[in-house]
């Protein structure tokens, strides 16, 4: 394992312009020969954008393969990327919302989707006024990869938390505006935990709702992270405060609002999402759809 770590670190030290050569090779193999999860990607796109022609679907799929290949090499680059380079390549827009939350004495819940490249937000901890920045990750089967990705996410002052422990951590921590927690909130819940679903991209979609418990029980600041790929190797993330319709969030309100914001993002840039995941495989297990029992 130590040898593998050394190899990965050595590769990550290569300039991105070199790593993008590997990305181009992966793109060629996927788009023209191997077709990694081609059927899953194509079906997800067809179901999500029924108004688009087959030619448009193929064009989105082609761009997805390029963005996905870039994401893979950029994730490897994360092992050794400097804080300076990270800040240059990831522009953070509308940071005022974090200062507002701190002034209000409210901890922050950041909600992001699987939009490329969410892994490059690590230097964010140095920018926001909150003292503690907690990326939330889901435990993987490989101890090796979990340890490596945890190291990557803990760079630049982050304090990564595993998904099963984060909710309790938030409830036990002081709500004083000094902590932020980043959820990749469009995760597909395990089949045993599929309870709530909503309409997302023209489909009944099982939704992860762990952060909804926080919205209805605590006075927190919820912020949507809108990712955008500006050009190869450069991204923007625009932060939007999510407010309740009334004095506080009702049940599942923040879940619906997050998915609507994410849907708007994907309509603008449909090729920049992780379409290879089987996000809709547990549709039949939804027990409550948008507030009504099935």
Automatic annotation (TrEMBL):
GO terms for biological process: glycolipid biosynthetic process. The keyword Acyltransferase applies. Its main location: membrane. The keyword Acyltransferase applies. GO terms for cellular component: plasma membrane. It is found in: Cell inner membrane. This is Lipid A biosynthesis acyltransferase. It comes from the Bacteria. GO terms for molecular function: acyltransferase activity. Keywords: Acyltransferase, Cell inner membrane, Cell membrane, Membrane, Transferase. PANTHER family: LIPID A BIOSYNTHESIS LAUROYL ACYLTRANSFERASE (PTHR30606), PHOSPHATIDYLINOSITOL MANNOSIDE ACYLTRANSFERASE (PTHR30606:SF10).
